[in-house]
Amino acid sequence: MPGVWRAVGYSKGAAVVFHSPKACAHVAHTMDINAHFRGIARDEREPYEYSAPLISTMLTEKHSIFGGAKQLENCLDFVVKRYKPQYIVIANSCVVGVIGDDVAAVAADAEEKHNLPIITLPCYGFLDGEYYAGYYGVAEALVDRFLVGGLPKVHDSVILLGDNGGPNGEYAVEVKRLLAYFDLHVIGQFPGYVAYDDMNQVTTAALSVVLGGRTQANDSLLKIAKKLEEKFAIPYYGGVYPLGWQGTREWLADLGRKLHKEESAQKAIAEQKERLERVLVDAKEKLRGKKVAVCIGRQLEYFRPEWVMEILELIEINQLGIVLLDSYMPKDRASMEQAIKSCTNIKVFNQLEGAKVVEAADIILTTHEIETYNARQLFLPMLPTVGVTGMIKLIKNIIKIAYRHGDKGGIVYG
After folding, report:
1. N or C: which end of the chain has fewer CB atoms below 10 A?
2. Parts of the chain belonging to CATH 3.40.50.1980
3. How many other C-beta atoms are found inside a 10 Å radius of the C-beta of residue 198?
């Protein structure tokens, strides 16, 4: 359900109805509030950004017996009257899946009654879907219902696919900066940040660029990219994640080959390398003699260790070891160990063995906060900033935590 919300959450003209108990909408609302304040802290939010109304049908125990179809019908009437949206998206909870409401029929009747597009998906919360299923399902429905082909292409224009913090987020901003090397300009970010009145602008793009990352998200976004290519002849670029220096270099080189602009790619790589090397010279000097430990507790699906190991090698800091925390199931631990061994020779410890490693380190890079007074910790982000900009940000944070005043520990969020 949060994926459904996020897919149109900032699309001007949209309204989202959760056919659910109040608590389900509260979860999505809390996620949005957290994202809002993170964006403010990172100077990513714009005061004029639209946020779609999120309304719950407020299902209760009685609806589990008598059904909630009438409740949904009344809610849709209220939303149309109160918010006057240009379209509505309905997300179904697992409760609705259990009681068997015919949501599609209610939506069809309401669409005819109000002469307003209403989108619903055959997903029912935890029963048969998850975040990316909802996100992809809504994006696919928007393509099928609202996008029109046959419009002239805008030369050197790009539509970004995905979210990752939106148009002002670090990912999109960095990608826009890299695309400028190829004289490409971004005209929108689909699906969550394209207004209803601007939907057809998507089909005028000369190229779509996938803001990928984790495997599951990237697979869903690639499906959208392929659909846009099949229906509207928009070629897409995706599959390479510009994280760390190796990823950034591959991303630029691969894009250059796709666009037949290899010279532009080489210029971009050279300039980004020079930019990185200037920071590395300063970092090596300031971190000389410092010792670092890395603590990892996330599954491989949510954390790839390669980019962190690459940065630690580049700054030439003394690595004491990698500690795998006690949060893994055996299979997940084995997968993470294999990923670590493929990118570094640094010794791997379990949490008990690694206690002395953590104690001896001047700096701890960690996916989970460590409960110790003296530890100087850098919390590794779930969604790290891409490109050389992301590398510089992490390096500067390592220096920042290393030179924290006095002998007191603390944490910096990367």
Report:
1. C
2. 2-146, 157-239
3. 15
For each successive 10 residues of the chain (414 residues), what is the average pLDDT? 85 92 70 65 63 86 73 93 96 74 90 96 68 85 94 96 87 95 97 94 96 74 94 91 93 96 98 97 96 94 92 96 94 95 95 93 92 83 88 94 78 76
Task: Name the fold adopted by 157-239.
Answer: Rossmann fold (3.40.50)
Contact 136, 226 (CB under 8 A): no
Question: Which of the following CATH numbers is that of domain 282-413: 3.40.50, 1.20.120, 3.30.70, 3.30.1340?
Answer: 3.40.50
Alpha carbon distance 265, 83 (integer Å): 47
**Residue 315, Cβ density class (10 Å: 0-12 exposed, 13-18 middle, ≥19 buried):** buried
Q: Which CATH superfamily is domain 2-146 in?
A: Nitrogenase molybdenum iron protein domain (3.40.50.1980)
Query: How are strands ordered across the β-sheet holding 363-366?
Result: 348-350, 318-324, 291-296, 363-366, 376-379, 410-413
